[in-house]
Amino acid sequence: PCSLSGPGLDSPAQEPLPEKEEAAGLREVGDAISCHLADMLQQLTAVNAAKPSERLAVRQEEAEDPACIPIFWVSKWVDYSDKYGLGYQLCDNSVGVLFNDSTRLIMYNDGDNLQYIEQNNTESYFTVRSYPSALNKKITLLKYFRNYMSEHLLKAGANITPREGDELARLPYLCTWFRTRSAIILHLSNGTVQINFFQDHTKVILCPLMAAVTYIDEKRDFRTYKLSLIEEHGCCRELASRLRYARTMVEKLLSSKSGSGRVKSST
């Protein structure tokens, strides 16, 4: 489901199509991703309908819930999609690239283990010491992206400890992304949607499973709120306007059926 055909890097040799059982499993992944987006749209529609910034007495601090801090968010990204793809780093220091040919390559934070995801979502696991020669170019590019981000970019949420994840929790990968004039929208395979606004460097990280939003403001303060509590207690105009924008972006992701590595950008 999270793939888009199109010109890109030379693809490595295609593996045989997955068996029926595996194909059904891949379909389930796509269904879960769409389901998370639908849940998020419902949550955002409800909070926006409550007009949380128009309360007589806004008590935003009452809506905070630190227990809902996300496990993963995108801490750095670099857009080289005019040639290769989008590189990103997650808050645990793992690094990934969503290539223009809709394949994905992820290096875990141990700097050794690799995960390769093909257009049809088939996954393979390698290490930096042992991988197919067909991946040479992509692994070289992944290292380039990693070094560039390490040397040139600030880490979003660097002072925040993520929520403890289950030991078996899968490392999410970048499913879909697009840019507008105002922001970049990043959709992870665990359902998280992150929106980074260009002008003021504020960010929202939406988690449909926790029904929560994390807001990183202009001062880089990092606060997590339950959406249902924002409905109840209200929030500031700045956050309310970003939640309205987020709803439009989630609609856009859903209308693309989360089916593309890159959604056509718009305003």
Report what the structure shows.
The protein has 267 residues and is an alpha+beta fold. Helices cover 27% and strands 24% of the residues. The protein contains 4 helices and 12 strands; from the N terminus they run αββββββαββββββαα. The protein has helices at 20-49, 136-152, 227-233, 237-255, and strands spanning 74-80, 85-90, 95-99, 104-107, 113-117, 123-127, 174-179, 183-188, 193-197, 203-207, 212-216, 222-226. The chain has a 6-stranded antiparallel sheet, covered by helices on one side. Strands 7-8-9-10-11-12 form a 6-stranded antiparallel sheet. A hairpin with a 3-residue loop joins strand 7 and strand 8 (183-188). The model is unreliable at 1-22 (pLDDT under 50). GO terms for molecular function: ATP binding; protein serine/threonine kinase activity. It comes from Vidua macroura. One of its GO terms (cellular component) is nucleus.
The gyration radius over C-alpha positions equals 19 Å
CATH class of the largest domain: Alpha Beta
Major sheet: arrangement of strands: 1-2-3-4-5-6
Order of helices and strands: HEEEEEEHEEEEEEHH
Helix content: 25-40%
Number of domains: 2
| Helical/strand content category | alpha+beta
Number of strands: 12
β-sheet strand percentage:
15-25%
Mean pLDDT: 87
CATH architecture of the largest domain: 2-Layer Sandwich
Under CATH, the homologous superfamily of the largest domain reads: POLO box domain
